[in-house]
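Researcher: Here's a chain I'd like modeled. Treat it as a single chain, no partners, no ligands.
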Amino acid sequence: MDVDLEELAAIIEQLDKTEFTDFLYEKGSLRLHVRRGGYIPDNAAQHTAVAAAGTSAPPPAALPAAPAGPISAAPAVAPAPTAVAQNGHSPAVSPGSLPDGHLLVTAPMLGTYYGAPKPGEPAFVKVGDSVAADAVLCIVEVMKLMNSVTAGAAGEVTAVFVKDGDLVEFEQPLFAIRTAS
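Model: Modeled as a single isolated chain. Structure tokens:
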């Protein structure tokens, strides 16, 4: 398959405008893997091959593909970012020390976090809202594809750890939910 240089240039231009640590693009036989310093996943040691233009290197191991449709988050342990409450005060819940009965909703992939369906509209959820397991909490945009992130369990939103428009990393904490017992 021939490489569309205009498309490749557009991707690189977009990457220059964002703060990312790991990016994998596959189209046909083309595989582009770009990594910057910062967060390195546990299995990164096997992904260290870098191909320069016009040279070949062994291809990096495949990263899991992003699932289509709504994404259900699972509990995870991740670095503790600062929480953002709707009233501007930090909530008592932090990702590093969740009380029993809380679920940590994490980013399913690297992308841009959007807390509302469209700019200027109310957020999907805010601290104190009750949510169903299939409730959409936010959108993570990856290369112009909007991926809905769902609660994964019914309960009450107790913390929002990111702001609208933030770049989020894979498995970065987004929300804390006190699950219904």
